[in-house]
């Protein structure tokens, strides 16, 4: 058990270097199962969801080692067609990618139902529909999913009812070795989807259209391992941008692809915050004076649901009223009760939160209810008067690499203490 202690009030100044994108690294790591050999992946973030994925792969016979500079060597030659341990897969959402990868390589998969951050119901019906269209027989028993494609997967057209990131990635993973053409319509367009396609294409796949809403995957006879660099994490970058805006100061958020952050940049500018955009970094400058805005989450290139809690925290300090609607995960408002402990005035009705900004916020003891909620509490604590203690650090460590160290380097008074 750990706690984050933040003594609020310091501005943020300096440079922060963003790590690789967790939500791209996860499908890529599982997709390595398909190419049966030694891959080298650069810019893999050092976060616990990645560690858990690697444990799952090791339990199935893969071997990995961390190299210098955040690189990961992952050898999937020895992967066996077995059931992955339930205690691992049930802890993370990314383990759904195991289904596509095992089906693609072995024509069968047995995987415990995935867990992940709790935003309410997180169905996988679109994944199941897609695997079915590719010729797999899918059934559920004892909390596990079983998929069998006796004569191998066959390409097909799949219309996703929702532009799901996970289902799009899973169809790409399952489709690359299928017989014939797979077309995913209403596909997710997130940068992680493009990263996965680039990785698979470097391994010999034939995927076109990633980043648009129609992705075409022509099955190939086999893939080879490769060396690949994961793109920077747009959500980590956005989190630091919002942190700087909230606490004040001037921060260069470096090692990023600024286009991925266009929506976040636009929304920050709408609040009155200055964001200067350069080739591979942005500078956020703030005198802590900004106004309330209206936000609605939407699949990329819309406003990312993974940035909504951080903006909620910031908008507690804005002048005027803000509203944030999350139509992707309406169960994502659990952090609101924690922010109220600091003095925030937020009311939630359905999938919309109304935030009355500008009230005095003071440090409090709070609990991170999920990964991005944890980041939001830290952001709120940066600008509050007094000391905040945040438990649930393990959620934050799922997706942020050395958040405390990076914030400390920018001037924040923050430490992680172990309660054991
Ligand atoms: N959905 C369905 N059926 C499905 C799949 C999804 O109804 O079969 C619904 C979901 O319930 C949700 C919407 O579709 O309402 C979008 O879900 P999506 O499948 O796109 O999300 P995901 O793949 O489960 C990934 C990220 C999340 C991120 C979402 C949305 C990973 C491992 N997770 O989840 O990241 O919020 O896309 O962008 O890539 C995070 O990093 O904090 C995080 C939660």
Short structural summary:
The chain has 420 residues and is of the alpha+beta class.
Task: Summarize the SSE layout with pairings.
Elements: E1 2-7, E2 12-17, H1 22-31, E3 38-42, H2 48-59, E4 63-66, E5 72-75, H3 86-89, H4 97-106, E6 108-112, H5 125-133, E7 137-141, E8 144-148, E9 157-159, H6 165-175, E10 181-185, H7 191-202, E11 206-208, E12 214-218, E13 227-229, H8 234-247, E14 249-254, H9 262-271, E15 274-277, E16 281-286, E17 294-296, H10 308-315, E18 321-325, H11 336-340, E19 345-349, E20 352-356, E21 365-367, H12 371-383, E22 387-391, H13 393-399, H14 403-409, E23 413-418
Parallel strand pairs: 2-14, 3-13, 9-10, 17-18, 21-22
Antiparallel strand pairs: 1-22, 1-23, 3-5, 4-5, 6-8, 7-8, 10-12, 11-12, 14-16, 15-16, 18-20, 19-20
> What ranges have pLDDT less than 50 throughout 5 or more consecutive residues?
none
Shape field? globular
Q: DSSP strand (E) fraction?
A: 25-35%
Number of strands: 23
Q: Over all CA atoms, what is the radius of gyration? A: 21 Å
The main pleated sheet reads as: 4 strands, mixed
* Fraction of residues in H or I helices: 25-40%
Bound molecules: uridine-diphosphate-2(N-acetylglucosaminyl) butyric acid
Q: What structural class do the secondary elements suggest?
A: alpha+beta
Overall average pLDDT: 95
Helix count? 14
Distance between the termini: 6 Å
Q: Strand sequence of the main sheet, in spatial order?
A: 21-22-1-23
């Amino acid at each position: 058990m750990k706690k984050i202690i933040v003594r609020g009030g310091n501005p943020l100044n300096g440079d922060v270097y963003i790590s690789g994108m967790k939500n791209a690294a996860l499908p890529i790591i599982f997709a390595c199962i398909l190419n049966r050999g030694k891959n080298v992946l650069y810019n893999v973030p050092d976060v616990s969801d990645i560690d858990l994925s690697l444990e799952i792969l090791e339990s199935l016979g893969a071997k990995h080692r961390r190299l210098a500079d955040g690189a990961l060597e992952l050898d999937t030659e020895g992967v066996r067609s077995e059931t992955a341990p339930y205690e691992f897969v049930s802890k993370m959402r990314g383990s759904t990618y195991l289904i596509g990868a095992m089906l693609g390589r072995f024509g069968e998969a047995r995987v415990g139902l995935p867990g992940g951050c709790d935003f309410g119901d997180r169905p996988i019906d679109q994944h199941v529909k897609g695997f079915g269209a590719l010729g797999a027989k899918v059934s559920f028993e004892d909390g596990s999913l079983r998929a069998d494609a006796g004569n191998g997967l066959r390409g097909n057209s799949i219309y996703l009812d929702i532009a799901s990131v996970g289902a799009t990635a899973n169809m790409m993973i399952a489709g690359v070795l299928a017989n014939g053409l797979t077309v995913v319509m209403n596909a997710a367009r997130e940068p992680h989807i493009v990263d996965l396609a680039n990785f698979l294409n470097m391994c010999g796949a034939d995927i076109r259209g990633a980043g648009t809403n129609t992705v075409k995957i022509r099955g190939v006879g086999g893939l080879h391992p490769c060396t690949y660099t994961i793109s920077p994490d747009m959500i980590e970058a956005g989190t630091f941008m919002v942190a700087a805006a909230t606490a004040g100061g001037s921060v260069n958020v470096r090692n990023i692809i600024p286009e991925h952050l266009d929506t976040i940049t636009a929304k920050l500018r709408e609040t009155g915050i200055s964001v200067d955009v350069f080739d591979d970094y942005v500078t956020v400058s703030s005198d802590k004076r900004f106004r309330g805005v209206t936000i609605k989450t939407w699949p990329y290139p819309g406003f990312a649901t993974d940035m909504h809690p951080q903006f909620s925290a910031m908008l507690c300090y804005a002048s005027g009223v803000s509203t944030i609607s999350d139509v992707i995960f309406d169960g994502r408002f659990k952090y609101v009760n924690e922010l109220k402990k600091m003095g925030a005035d937020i009311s939630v009705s359905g999938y919309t939160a109304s935030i009355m900004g500008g009230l005095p916020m003071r440090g409090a003891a709070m609990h991170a209810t999920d990964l991005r909620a944890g980041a939001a509490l830290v952001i709120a604590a940066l600008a509050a008067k007094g000391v905040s203690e945040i438990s649930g650090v393990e959620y934050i460590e799922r997706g942020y690499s050395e958040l405390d160290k990076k914030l400390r380097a920018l001037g924040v008074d923050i430490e992680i203490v172990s309660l054991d």
